[in-house]
């Protein structure tokens, strides 16, 4: 639950769902950039995926409220709890004049907008940092790339830290993490005072700035690609092997649940692809799931 509250706190700062409240007395501060410094990589990924987790809780609460006797009795309290948790009321109740099903739908749509907002590079950009001369560090960065996709985030670039003039290190990152924009971070020696002007202005610093300024383009692999003709779904999942990926289906085959690492991702399938999983195979860094 802590990850969910962290996600909602971050939403207040970056305005993921681009909604402001005219009734709130306090003014919302505006920032050019907000840097989120999490406890760990895993905790940050859980924070990003928190809205999807909240949607799972919401489905459970709704099922409890609509299909059990005790749920129907406590439904008003459950609705108010869900509404207050995601701050939908803007200082006024949304219960007035609405059916309970409408309120459940409102809450679910709001959480979906937050999830979509976290996936926008203009709202939340994530970067991989590694030692290009250390295979373990490279493998960890590759796995975090896949975990970030699973959590619903967008990786915008990759950085390596290496000794100065290490062109071989730069080539390693470009080869391993293509098509992500990449650069070697400026080398800092802490044995003497750091000349920050030289660090920022020299060419290697310029490369790093270009990565931050890069915009997403068509060469970036899409996390999910649907192929209606072949009735298949292609999932871009770098850093995982076949044994780590589990596929489940919900709601009569209209949703595909992908479990990898400690993240779960729900993918809504188009009508033309809905059905049972017929098979799955790896193709490069992607998993192709065939439906039948």
Automatic annotation (TrEMBL):
Pfam families: ArsA_HSP20. It comes from the Eukaryota. Residues 231-290 form the ArsA HSP20-like domain. InterPro entries: ArsA_ATPase-like (IPR053262), ArsA_HSP20-like (IPR040612), HSP20-like_chaperone (IPR008978), P-loop_NTPase (IPR027417). PANTHER family: OS02G0711200 PROTEIN (PTHR43868), P-LOOP CONTAINING NUCLEOSIDE TRIPHOSPHATE HYDROLASES SUPERFAMILY PROTEIN (PTHR43868:SF1). Belongs to the arsA ATPase family. This is ArsA HSP20-like domain-containing protein.
């Amino acid at each position: 639950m802590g990850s969910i509250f962290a996600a909602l706190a971050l939403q207040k700062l970056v305005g993921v769902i681009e909604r402001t409240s005219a009734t709130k007395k306090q003014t919302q501060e505006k920032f050019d950039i907000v840097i989120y410094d999490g406890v760990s990589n895993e905790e940050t990924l859980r924070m990003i995926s928190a809205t999807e987790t909240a949607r799972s809780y919401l489905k459970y609460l709704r099922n409890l409220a609509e299909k059990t006797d005790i749920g129907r009795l406590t439904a008003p309290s459950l609705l108010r709890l869900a509404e207050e948790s995601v701050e939908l009321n803007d200082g006024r109740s949304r219960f007035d004049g609405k059916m309970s099903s409408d309120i459940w739908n409102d809450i679910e749509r709001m959480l979906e907008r937050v999830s979509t907002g976290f996936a926008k590079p203009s709202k939340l950009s994530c970067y991989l940092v590694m030692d290009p001369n250390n295979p373990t560090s490279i493998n960890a960065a590759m796995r975090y790339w896949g975990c970030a996709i699973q959590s619903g985030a967008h990786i915008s670039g990759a950085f390596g830290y290496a000794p100065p003039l290490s062109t071989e290190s730069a080539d390693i990152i470009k080869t391993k993490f293509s098509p992500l924009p990449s650069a070697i971070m400026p080398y800092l020696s802490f044995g003497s005072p750091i000349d920050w002007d030289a660090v920022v202005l020299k060419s290697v610093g310029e490369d790093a700035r270009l990565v931050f300024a890069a915009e997403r383009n068509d060469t970036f692999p899409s996390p999910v690609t649907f192929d209606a003709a072949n009735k298949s779904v292609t999932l871009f999942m770098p850093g995982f092997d076949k044994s780590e990926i589990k596929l489940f289906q919900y709601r009569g085959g209209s949703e595909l649940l992908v479990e990898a690492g400690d993240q779960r991702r729900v993918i809504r399938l188009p009508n033309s692809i809905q059905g049972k999983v017929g098979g799955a195979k790896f193709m490069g860094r992607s998993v192709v799931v065939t439906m039948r």
